[in-house]
Amino acid sequence: MLPSLKQKFAKMSRKKLLAGVLVIGLVVSVVAFNIVKSMKPTGIPVKTAQAEIKHVQDNVFATGRVRLVEKQEFYSYEETTVQEINVDPGETVHKGQVLGLLDAGDLEDKLSNAKANYVVQQSNLASALNPRPEEIAQLRADYNKAEADYQNAQNNYARIKQLYDEEAVSAQELEKADLELVARETEYKNAESRLEIKTSGPTKPELTSLKAQVEQARIQMELAQRQLDRTTLTAAMDGVAIAVEVAEGDHINPGTRLITIGNTDKVEVTAGVSEADSGRLKTGQQVKVTAAALPDREYTGTLHSVSPGALVKTGNQGSQIEVPVIVRITGDSEGLRTGYTVDLTITTVDIEKTLVVPYEAVVEKDGKRVVYVVQNDTAREKKVETGLDIDIYTEIKSGLKEGDKVVVSPDELLSDGARVSEGLRDDPSV
Q1: What three-state secondary structure class fits 176?
Q2: CA distances from 222 to 225, 377, 402 (A)
């Protein structure tokens, strides 16, 4: 009995000893591994991200107001009275339709007088350029008579002068003969001048003056006609009456807006883009248009124009510089009423597939743009050709390939060949 217990105890002791030895060996191995590991250099800790192919888009945002592309506004140009209004807001109108009448006053008389004066001035010019034969005959007869009268006055003066020298007549009679001679000479020279003008035509200054009088008369006639035409409010296009702002019998002052018509199928948006964003704009860029009044609708358009100048806009938050732009709605514009305030999303960049890295990965070094690519726990400096800076990304034209791991926000002390310890950065686009 006793030997058996002793044997069992001996066997149990050997097992415990063996287990203890194994445990001690494991502990020693772990400690040794950690010591060795702690002696191995870990490198500079860095965050990395992968160069990847992405669909990138960049947008500029603005707020604008809807207006008609094609419209006609009627204003009063004189102080007058509204005689008729023949259209209501929202009513369809057609080209040539009379929408209203204003009191013409004495404009018809002014037009008649202007037409008569124009005819007279045209006649004067025609007569100077192409005199009638009977006119020339009459002027020649006047000239011949004036010449004869002048000759007779000369003869009479010579006779009186001789008698005066002989003291046969008084000084008063000589003076009277002298005055008669001067009068007849004046008539003769005037008759000669009139005949010469008719037969030789007007001089250049005279012709210029006559043509100027005709042109002035024409302008006055057209102005009178225009003033009279403005009293009849005639539609110059097909469209819809957008606004009727006066009623029959209203007394109106110059500059009063009366009626507005327009083509509601063609609308555009005017807006102002901030100075900082304006450099990214080009005509033809695609635009998304939304309106608070139509929360379930989205409209499409294109950037039609970008002003070459900027304006200072003053609001509740102070003054800011804006560049005026116009966006044309290209698709369906149903429900988009003139005067609505809308939000614009102008797409300045839209690239379906391009290689990008986070913009913090690209740094300037010695006048060139570089990135640090991690290969086998080592940072390798690579020169890259960049394209657009788009939101949180920079486009890479050359120098990298898809999948390359680049250091994000590299430390200034990081250099080519440095050992690094990397950790992937979360996707910045999430």
Answers
A1: helix
A2: 5, 88, 73
Q: What is the Cα–Cα distance from 412 to 86, expressed in whole angstroms? A: 78
| CATH architecture assigned to 76-102+231-261 | Beta Barrel (2.40)
d(CA 88, CA 86): 7
- Partnered with residue 294 across adjacent β-strands are 291
Q: Which amino acid is at 171?
A: A
Residue whose C-alpha is closest to residue 338's, from 283, 263, 259, 245 = 263
Q: Does domain 46-56+353-424 have CATH number 3.40.50.300?
A: no
* Cβ atoms of residues 271 and 344 within 8 Å: yes
Q: For the chain, what are the domain ranges?
A: 46-56+353-424, 60-68+263-350, 76-102+231-261, 109-226
**CA-to-CA distance for 76 and 246, rounded, in angstroms?**
11
Yes or no: domain 60-68+263-350 corresponds to CATH 2.40.30.170: yes
pLDDT in tens, 28-85: 455 444 544 444 457 889 999 999 999 988 899 999 999 999 999 999 999 999 999 9
As a residue count, the chain comes to: 430
